[in-house]
Amino acid sequence: MILPVEYSECRQRFIDAALTARLTTYVLPSEAGASGETLSMDTAYIGPDAPKRLLITLSAVHGVEGPAGSGIQSQWLRDHADGKIDLTPDTGVLHIHAANPWGFSHRARTNENNVDLNRNFRDLADVEHLNRDFDEIYDILHPQSPESDVIKQHLAALDAKSDEWGLDRVMNTMSAGQYRHQGALDFGGSEEQWSVTHIKKAVEPYLKTAIDVAIIDFHTGYGDYGETVFLCFNEPSGPAWRRAEEWFGYDTINAKAINPGGEEKTFKRPDYSGVIAAGLHDMTQALERSVTCVVEFGTYPISEYMGDVLRENWAYRGGVRDQREDIVEAFARQFAPLDEAWGQSVLAHGRRILDQAIVGLGKIS
Ligand SMILES: [Zn+2]
To answer: Is residue 151 in some structural domain?
Structure first.
């Protein structure tokens, strides 16, 4: 496979590609991988000890979505080793591989505590009141059985709620983050997770000197098949937003709504809470000089994969996730298709995006 999907194979490729990089391994304590393997977040850094310009990439914040970002990072490292990439002497590049190693290996979007890490990077002292709407659709999102007719009823109820509330409000409720239901979907956690702590550790030495920064976090699940959707986390129309437009294109950055792909209706971008890229942005020295984007690669329409999302969470809540290979595998393929053409498209886009960021960083005087 051009994009292998197994965590251990992806990790090995990353390490093999990182020959010319400074490699750091953070072992996740107390958890093993699906095949008993050690789990770790690994970082590969290339550049001076005190970079002025810095590109940070992340893969597998949503574990199961990891193959795309992992493949892009490994490709970049190989390109660099082959002498195909020009960096100014003051530019550093830090790739953070498998930010959520448990989810990558066990084919989950969440981590070992059912926390969505991309809702966890924030002050968690006073979050329980957030997203009260979630309680109102809790029953719709959490079926008591994985049977097809039951799932269909729940999806129909979700459609009916969209008619009543509007799609924007339903999508916001489902995805903004919630902090009251531990076993449920979209749970942001009650304390900072290991991954967030170690991502902060990994970036801190480089952010001490870096002034101009680009943060790119790779995900999958929104957009047309194999194509990109950018979610820019800078102040809209501020200096960093303008910089992102220059690098990646005006239309790419200024989409008014999220196009989830296929014939699906677009919806207003949810008011995400605790996003990792946004948290990293806030750690940078000059906020108006830090371009911060989540890049999504489209797989299938939400209406096609929502049933698998409900089933996978049902299996988690019921404590039968390990026994339901059928459910977990169907879920995983929605976010990491086993399709060479999809993988080729992801890698081609990924190479271009990182090139645009590096060229953009290099041009800043
Ligand atoms: Zn994601």
So the answer is: no
Domain that holds residue 43: 7-127+192-298+339-363
Among candidate residues 108, 118, 97, the one with its CA nearest the CA of residue 10: 97
Ligand 1: distance of its center to the CA of 66 in Å?
Answer: 9
Provide CB contacts within 8 A for 57, sequence distance 6+: 69, 72, 73, 76, 93, 94, 95, 96, 215, 216, 217, 218, 354
Q: How many angstroms does the Cα of residue 49 sit away from the middle of ligand 1?
A: 31
DSSP 112: T
Tell me the three state secondary structure of residue 318: coil
Return the CATH number at 203: 3.40.630.10
Q: How long is the chain?
A: 365
Q: Is residue 166 part of a domain?
A: no
Does residue 280 sit within a domain? yes
Check pLDDT > 90 for residue 60.
Answer: yes
**pLDDT tens digit string along 334-356?**
999 999 999 999 999 999 999 99
Going from the Cα of 294 to the center of ligand 1, the distance in angstroms, rounded, reads 9
Ligand 1 centroid to residue 301 C-alpha, Å: 14
Residue 257 has pLDDT above 90, yes or no: no
Ligand 1 centroid to 340 CA: how many Å?
A: 21
Ligand 1 is a single-atom ion; what residues have CB below 5 A from it?
62, 65, 219
Number of independent structural domains in the chain: 1
CA of 64 to the centre of ligand 1 (A): 9
Cβ–Cβ under 8 Å, residues 126 and 179: no
Does this model's pTM top 0.90?
A: yes
C-alpha distances in Å from residue 304, one per residue of 263, 310, 365: 11, 12, 47
Judge whether 258 and 232 are in contact, CB under 8 Å. no
Number of H helices, E strands in the chain: 13, 7
Distance 62 CA to ligand 1 centre (A): 5
Q: Is residue 142 part of a domain?
A: no
H or E stretch at 328:
helix 325-335
Closest CA to 177 of 108, 122, 98, 234: 122
Instruction: Kindly give the interhelix angle for 194-207 and 276-283, rounded to the nearest 10 degrees.
Output: 30
